[in-house]
Design a protein that fits this description.
Strand content: under 5%
Main location: membrane
Distance between the termini: 25 Å
Transmembrane segments: 12-30, 50-73, 174-193, 213-233, 240-259, 271-289, 298-316, 328-349
Order of helices and strands: HHHHHHHHHHHEEEHEE
Radius of gyration: 22 Å
Structural class: mainly alpha
Number of strands: 5
Catalytic activity: a 1,2-diacyl-sn-glycero-3-phospho-L-serine(in) = a 1,2-diacyl-sn-glycero-3-phospho-L-serine(out)
Subcellular location: Cell membrane; Membrane
Helix content: 55-70%
Pfam families: XK-related
């Protein structure tokens, strides 16, 4: 049977995928609306500096997401069979390149991708039309773009909102709404992205709701203290937070370059990706290279833990004892404990809740659906009977996330690994 034994069944678009797409749109609109609301409040109150900072974050995030979306759209158009006559007919208005380019320039490309994914998903799920694999393809790209948008805008915005509350020693309704929206966006998008990655694995390796909950908790418990520590540091040494970010971001970009990432399809696109990875690493761990990840993860968490301790110690030394007296001791104790709890939840996830631990014993290794846990089949997505459309971007990240140094890539596209 040869390599055919190693090809898992395609993921089918389901009502859960449709719900995730709809929730993703509502989360995006809620987060965007809260940003506009907060920016308007700053402007009305005469806080033009914070208004400028917030608008700058919104513009920077939008531009980066639109650039990624446009790079990917250009790559997809060069694939065999990608034309208005194929299943790709709905993505950003088919082959009208000028219109697609204009939408991205107007910062509407990301929103159009959302609308396209929902329309295609509804057509496949509700009307039972063909194109399930293509609908899944669209959701994969959206999950990555939402993750980029989350760490380029939501995480910095949340840090800014916490900083403003600490500096003014006030918590207004609009700020609480913005913080809640940003926190929801971060937590949801991290889990959504991981579930999207999991859909590239054989069906029995999919992440359960319980596993997703633990994954959500350890990410939230690691990211939240990081954001709080940055905001606390900025509240006492606001002039140095920019230098802190630039230094760490530059180091992280060099580390991404040193790992020789290969995610985009051009040199310019690859450097855009590395710049974005450096920004993500400023807030959270994100694997970008093949090979054993345990060592790199240990280095990263050790570095971030040390940096967090320095940030908290600096805040404690320079804080106003009178103004911070109601919450200072609670924060200095709870934040390190929360981060430690996040690391424990991460260990718990890999020890007790990882999807590979719940897979049934394989009785017949010749069955395509009974692959060893270490076998990752890259799912080529058919948009024509004789054409295969491969989501290279998600395939690349599946390799990075689930392939250790003992793994190897076979000639048929299957990855053998024992560390999933």
């Amino acid at each position: 049977m040869g390599s055919d034994m190693k090809v898992a069944a395609f993921s089918k678009y389901s009502w859960i995928d449709f719900v995730f797409s709809v929730i993703g749109v509502f989360t995006f609109l809620l987060d965007w609306g809260s940003d506009v609301w907060v920016a308007t409040e700053f402007y009305r109150r005469g806080d033009f500096f914070w208004f400028g900072v917030l608008v700058g974050l919104m513009v920077l995030s939008s531009v980066m997401v639109q650039m990624f979306s446009w790079f990917w759209l250009k790559y997809d158009r060069e694939l065999p069979g990608f034309s208005p006559q194929t299943g790709a007919r709905t993505v950003l208005f088919g082959d009208r390149v000028k219109l697609s380019c204009l939408l991205h320039v107007l910062q509407l490309g990301f929103l159009c991708r959302h609308i396209t994914a929902i329309c295609e998903g509804f057509r496949v799920w509700w009307w039972k039309k063909e194109g399930s694999e293509y609908a899944v393809y669209l959701t994969h790209d959206l999950s990555m773009l939402r993750l980029i948008e989350t760490f380029c805008e939501s995480a910095p915005q949340l840090t800014l909102m916490i900083y403003v509350m600490l500096s003014t020693n006030k918590a207004r309704e609009v700020q609480l709404v913005s913080i809640a929206a940003s926190t929801t966006s971060i937590a949801w998008m991290v889990v959504d992205y991981h579930r999207s990655l999991r859909s590239f694995l054989p069906d029995k390796a999919k992440q359960s709701w319980g596993s997703s909950l633990i994954y959500f908790l350890w990410n939230l418990l690691l990211i939240a203290p990081r954001l709080a520590a940055l905001a606390l540091f900025a509240s006492v040494l606001s002039a140095y937070i920019a230098a802190h970010f630039l230094i760490l971001w530059f180091v992280f970009v060099l580390w991404a370059w040193q790992q020789r990432t290969d995610f985009m399809d051009s040199d310019g696109g690859e450097w855009l990706y590395r710049v974005t990875v450096g920004l993500i690493w400023y807030f959270s761990w994100f694997n970008v290279a093949e090979g054993r990840t345990r060592g790199r993860s240990l280095i990263y968490h050790s570095f971030i833990t040390t940096d967090g301790v320095i940030l908290l110690a600096t805040w404690w030394c320079y804080r106003d004892p009178v103004q911070t007296e109601p919450y200072a001791l609670a924060l200095i104790i709870s934040l390190p404990l929360t981060y430690l709890l996040g690391l424990l939840f991460k260990a718990l996830y890999y020890c007790c809740f990882h999807p590979k631990l719940w897979r049934p014993v394989v009785k017949d290794s010749t069955l395509a659906n009974d692959l060893p846990d270490g076998t990752v089949s890259f799912r080529n997505i058919s948009i024509q009977n004789d054409t295969l459309l491969v989501n290279k971007r998600m395939t690349s990240h599946v390799t990075c996330f689930y392939l250790n140094r003992r793994g190897n890539k076979n000639t048929d596209g299957t990855v053998e690994s024992s560390d999933l």
